[in-house]
Amino acid sequence: MKKIIDHENLSNKKVLLRLDLNVPLENGLIKDETRINKILPVIKFLLSKNSQIIIISHIGRPKGKINKDLSLKPICENLEKKINRKVKLIDDNIFKLTKNQVFQGSESQIIFLENIRFYKEEEKNDSSFAKKLAELADLFVNDAFSCSHRAHASISKITEFLPSYAGIQLDTEINALKKVTSEIKKPIACIIGGSKISTKIRVIKNLIPKFNYIVIVGGMANNILSYKGKQIGNSIKEDNCEKIINEIFESSKKYSCEIIYPLDVLVGKDMQSKSQKKEINDIKKNDMILDIGPKTIMKIQNIIDKSNTVLWNGPAGYFENPNFANGSFEIAKAIIKKNKSRSIYSVVGGGDTIALINKINSFDSFNFVSTAGGAFLEYLEGKELPGIKALN
């Protein structure tokens, strides 16, 4: 896979740059700038090389139709302030644009094409649409790892028509994920949470042969406790997961991977309750498990302490209520502590996990934080992502 940072001469080259700027918008205001901040290195690199940058991105799911509420205009304005450069948004029909027209009459080095998903051809991975995009530039750069699990025109098909390169962020993300999938430094632990075990089962199955510890927390852990014959009261639980859980434990025995689940918990009568600590055998029928307890926290801290690598995806409890946020915060603190001593390599991903670490202003306290969502999980499942395959 060729990297843009290794390109010999980018001066005056028109670079078609695919980014993921799918940020949360509310009444035209950006609610989370994380994804914009992560693309700044590739923008600054290309500007330093005197390239002309044509940015492709999307917001939301307009389903091939123009929706002014999903315009990239707020992103352009935000980026302008961040880099102190003029950024121009052009909403001309891409099929009518020519390479010479893109920067015509503009003093800006950076042009945004309007939301690429306004075109139905994008999600259909249409070859003629990809070719038309390619005609606007000299080379293509994919710096949108988080979109690379999509076989879309501006992600995978376009590489058939232009010299194509991996961007800085994409390359960083793949290198980080290799350290928890193929270039592992053991002992290695995975702390995995969330509400549904079925959405993470392929990740768990793929990691068990490679990992020393799989720690299951959050709503997922309730299924484990129920499988073990424990009372879980009114706690969230998926139906028909016994076979899945049995496969996890059978596989863990085969590969000598220790599966850890809660020893004690914090419960409430509902999600707005105050917390009450309980041993696993003391849970009542009207209790709702909403966080891990102190014994479980100590067990996880000990695992983190003896690990050289840790992957964390999913909070330990309902952290939106501060009464049930302690487990997740303590996991974060334990990883951060080892990071400071440079005795661990940490990869963190998942929307809720990112919201949690942003809440405690610790985004930069981990070796790598992935905002990739679906692509992050699919890579961990061992799948070949269309966008990465296209670059290879």
What does this entry look like structurally?
The chain has helices at residues 34-38, 40-48, 73-83, 120-123, 127-134, 168-178, 201-207, 219-227, 242-254, 294-305, 326-340, 351-359, 374-380, 386-391, and strands at 14-18, 25-26, 29-30, 52-56, 87-90, 110-113, 139-142, 164-166, 188-192, 213-216, 258-260, 264-268, 276-279, 288-292, 309-313, 345-349, 368-370. With 392 residues, the chain is of the alpha/beta class. It has two domains: 4-170, Rossmann fold (3-Layer(aba) Sandwich); 179-380, Rossmann fold, CATH 3.40.50. Strand 12 and strand 13 form a beta hairpin. The model has no long low-confidence stretch (mean pLDDT 95).
Largest sheet: 6 strands, parallel
The figure for the number of domains is: 2
Radius of gyration, CA atoms, in whole angstroms = 23 Å
- Please count the helical segments: 14
Return the CATH architecture of the largest domain: 3-Layer(aba) Sandwich
Kindly report the name of the CATH homologous superfamily of the largest domain. Answer: Phosphoglycerate kinase, N-terminal domain
**What is the CATH top level name of the largest domain?**
Alpha Beta
Structural class designation: alpha/beta
Please give the alpha-carbon distance between the first and last residues. 5 Å
Q: State the total count of DSSP E strands.
A: 17
* CATH topology description of the largest domain: Rossmann fold
Helicity range:
25-40%
Unreliable spans? none
- The geometry reads as elongated
